Amino acid sequence: MDSKAPDQAYHFHVMRRAIDLIDRGDEALPLDRLAGEMGMSAAHFQRLFSAWVGVSPKRYQQYLTLGHAKTLLANRFTTLEVAGAAGLTGTGRLHDLFLRWEAMSPGEFARQGEGLTIYHGWFESPFGDTLAMGTDKGLCGLAFTEECGRDAAFDDLSGRWPRASHEHAPERIAAWVSAAFAGKGQASLHMIGAPFQIKVWEALLQVPTGHVTTYSEIAQAIGSPRAVRAVGTAVGRNPVSFLIPCHRALRKSGALGGYHWGLPVKRAMLAWESARAEV
Predict the structure, then answer these.
(1) 99: β partners
(2) Which residues of 72-96 are buried (b: 16+ CB within 10 A; e: fewer)?
(3) CA distance 263 to 144
(4) Separation CA 22–CA 165 (nearest Å)
(5) Annotation says 148 is catalytic
(6) 218 near 203, Cβ under 8 Å?
């Protein structure tokens, strides 16, 4: 990753603490008080967030609140049928990132990764410490470790393909990881999942950055309108978090729903993307 990556991780840690502070209060915290709680001057806090997402801490705090999901549903809800017709799919351009994917065949999936070599490495990202995994064809796993720890994240992802060979070789996948978080260049995905899961993940790839959809909308888009619960399970089993944007799936009520790597990370992603969408 580039030289800015450690700063990105630091920003995430500060933001994670900000979520806890915001959740403990009944109203928005003034800039001076929020900065003081972080042990920073108001000016430094302002510069930190402006450098990370391009908006003021006051504005960013609005994106971090629990009620922000309802605002997104009201103002940035995506109907996947429309998104697909507009070309907002994974093979199109999402900002300046060109994303390609290939799905493993059902037979290959049934073999649980047998004969497959999966490379892995640890990277810094805008959302903290990140485990990435990939094959020669593309990234097959992205996990965020801030809530669960490195060991649990590695066991989780590697356990999905128990017969694969795992090799620590971050250089083999670094370019894809850098492109994913920079939002420019080209990244490749190797989608390793059951056929129903892959259909759900393909639908998620149609949701533009800064927008959200619902589990029921995804079920409708894949032709299984009654399979909302199964869709939710498939969203939760998405192994390539952020790049396959399961964080953009919400409940119709405006509740965040679950997130495999922890709800604070999901809230951070939605806030980060919302802020950047307005810059």
Answers:
(1) 187
(2) bbeebebebeebbeeebbbeeebee
(3) 11
(4) 43
(5) no
(6) yes
Return the pLDDT at 255: 83
* Mean pLDDT of successive 10-residue stretches along the chain, which has 279 residues: 56 79 73 85 82 72 79 84 45 61 89 95 92 97 94 97 97 96 91 94 90 93 94 96 94 86 89 77
Write down the pTM of the prediction: 0.83
> Among the options 131, 205, 246, 256, which is catalytic?
246
Note the pLDDT of residue 89: 43
Q: Tell me, what's the pLDDT at 63?
A: 80
Q: Which of 189, 68, 188, 209 is nearest to 126 (CA)?
A: 209
Q: Tokens 């250089």 — which residue?
A: 171
State residue 39's pLDDT score: 87
Residue among 196, 189, 176, 235 at smallest CA distance from 90: 189
Instruction: Compute the distance between CA of residue 228 and CA of residue 221 in angstroms, rounded to an integer.
Output: 11
Distance CA 54, CA 164 (A): 41
CA-to-CA distance for 270 and 253, rounded, in angstroms?
17
What pLDDT is stored for residue 220 in this prediction?
A: 93
Residue type (1 letter), 267 = R
User: CA–CA separation, 179 vs 97, rounded Å?
Assistant: 7
